[in-house]
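User: Fold this; tokens only.

Assistant: Input:
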Amino acid sequence: MTKKILVRISLTFSVAILILCVIWSRGKVDVIFKNAPAPVISHEYVPSILLPQDHRNKKIGSGSGIAVDSKGYVFYLHRAGYTFNNDEIIPEPTILQLNTNTGEVIAEWGKGVFKSPHGLSIDFEDNVWVTDIMLNKVFKFSHDGKLLKTFGEDYPFFLETSFRIKNVLPKFPSTNNPYIFARPTDVVVNEKGEFVVTDGYRNKRIAKFNRDGELLWEINKPGSGPGELNLPHGIALDQQGRLYVADRGNARIQVFSSEGKWLATWDQAELGRPFGLEIGTDGFLYMVDGGDLLHGRDIDPRSQIVKMDLNGNLISRWGTWGDKPGELKIPHDIAVDGSGNLYVAELNNNRLQKFMVMRFTPHPK
């Protein structure tokens, strides 16, 4: 074969690849940026730092998840000094149970289980659920840390590359197995034991399973239109079973019915970039805006807390960038106790903050 023929074959192959890339990349999901106005100072809450407090907490890592159990104890999930992409089992405890009045750590567990724990939720039976974005699993533990169940089929070695290509070329073929999680970010559980997973960093989907782990439905539509997703990151559940999803890459919140029907999209600039969500017993939705630093925009860092009603109306918002009490650096998750106090897990400050409410209004019966 002559050199001239080889050149022609090479050029033809290159052109074919270029054409395929153009075709496949149509509909690519891009990160949406908004210029959110500056939040105001809140006079509703008194901030304090629960963790770390002293030398006993020296291994506290990036605050990833937070939840409150039925007795008012707070469970704090952190990475013990390990990175987001850590690929070794963490030998230190990663889950701390706290007395919220004193900040005392009354229990700690989770050592030798996780690589990169990400989301934490507590169900109606006080079981503790954790997602791990490097193990690609969802774990269910008893209240005292006994592993009860693990959900998610093993992640094949080739799948990471496949999903990385698919994130750039949406039509690139990859697995459709709904029982394989691809960097799951969060989980929420209803009174029946059914759970919904935000499978966010690779799959860009949400999926609902029964208590035994059998798929009930999934929404796997990358995009920025109604019901489409771009890095679903946090999730909350209201008393009617509606699901509220922090659609982080699209800088918005989406609302779905318990059966997965799209109901609403909230995308006001004031929301910034939603990371974590929680619905309090007062019937309001609380959200942390982690800003844009993790998406490559390193100017005007922003971190705030947002309070909304369940119709999407803004009630209040507050917070500023910093490391003093009341200030925030990439808040990752938020929880609310029965008295209306807020708890925020921060990534960059490696800490847990409490925002004690000055006046609490219970949800009307």
